Amino acid sequence: MKKQSLLFLLMILSLTTYAQIKFEQGYFIDNNGTKTECFIKNVDWHDNPSQIQYKMSEDAKVKMGYIRNIKEFGVSDLKYVRATVNIDMSSEELNHLSANKNPEFKEATLFLKHIVQGEANLYQYEEGNLIRYFYQVGDKDIQQLIYKTYRVTQEIVNGVRKERTNKIDKNNRYKQQLWTDVKCDNIKESDAVKTNYKKNSLVKYFVKYNECKDPSFVNTRKQEDRDLFNLTIRPGINFSSLKPNIDESNFVIDNSSRDIGDFEDKSGLRFGIEAEFILPFNKNKWGIFIEPTYQSYKSELVIEYINFLGTNTRTYTVDYKSIELPVGLRHYMFVSDKSKLFVNAAYVLDFEFDSTLVVRNNSSTPIVNKLKSKTNIAIGCGYKYNDRYSIEARYATTREIGGIFDYSSFSVILGYSLF
Predict the structure, then answer these.
(1) All domains of the chain, ordered by start, with CATH?
(2) pTM higher than 0.90
(3) What is the rounded CA–CA span in Å between residue 16 and residue 345?
(4) What region holds the Outer membrane protein beta-barrel domain (predicted)?
């Protein structure tokens, strides 16, 4: 178990090391206002960056650009603007909520992600679990849209005792900011009230405002519509082998000392349904998946042996069925807009059922041994087309079964994504 956990960790680290994010055409503007066209390493940042890596040409040396020297940069559909703002860094985690209703501002110089560009601009800052939105109307200063979850302590009189209870409340001042500072003829107060402190909801509000101010408005900050969940049917073929890992003496019928040979390699159908969650950063290159899969293996081994009674035969029949549950990490490498390669590694739980080893010979009744299985590791690589069709080759390391057998398999898996 410990060896398999270590092997799985090493595989995940190898995947992370192998993953490459390419340099894409972009630009940056320095403190003097000079715009430089270059190639920027686009990692589709989850947390807002404070620096970038860039090259002046595809073959040039990699350089670093720091927030102190760069006022703005853009790559692909992303744009970041440097701003010195007051930001509320209060925790949103339930165990660390502040008892202060008001934002606890601190001044910071940040790269803000520009998500709506127009008469009214909307920006986003993200750091770990912290997400803050900022706005700017015309040439006014950039300000934070204030939203805060905080803790309220109440005293409740229960008979003769006073009990202190905690309640979670929210400061939704951003709605008043929207109605006061970002309103137009086509916007009602109810529009501001119904707007959630979520990216899509705020984008919708700011786009509506900008369209009111300028009927020809188009949001040049394109919002990527990401499909972050895939459900895929995955039938395939298993090529399986079963070998003894101890001698036969643990379950012999008589006192003879013999070793069991290897069982015949078998091919069989497997059927899985995979749920994949695409991580919302690094350009959709990473995914976490879980794939309940039915698989089976059945084989028979006949051994002849000689004792004082003469020549006898012993028959070993293995009937192994289980639901495998791989849980793993996948990395995609884009070949074109519709084609991508992938590699993955998974930790495989195995839930056997009605699995037996039956031993028969000429001189006694059959002995039925129930088989219990352990976990193992699986690694695979494959190809996906149009986010719909896929094929994967997967190798599964040895899995111990019944304490007496080593089971391993190689699979060819087809996939069809329902959504």
Answers:
(1) 21-76 (no CATH), 83-223 (no CATH), 229-417 (2.40.160)
(2) no
(3) 11
(4) 223-395
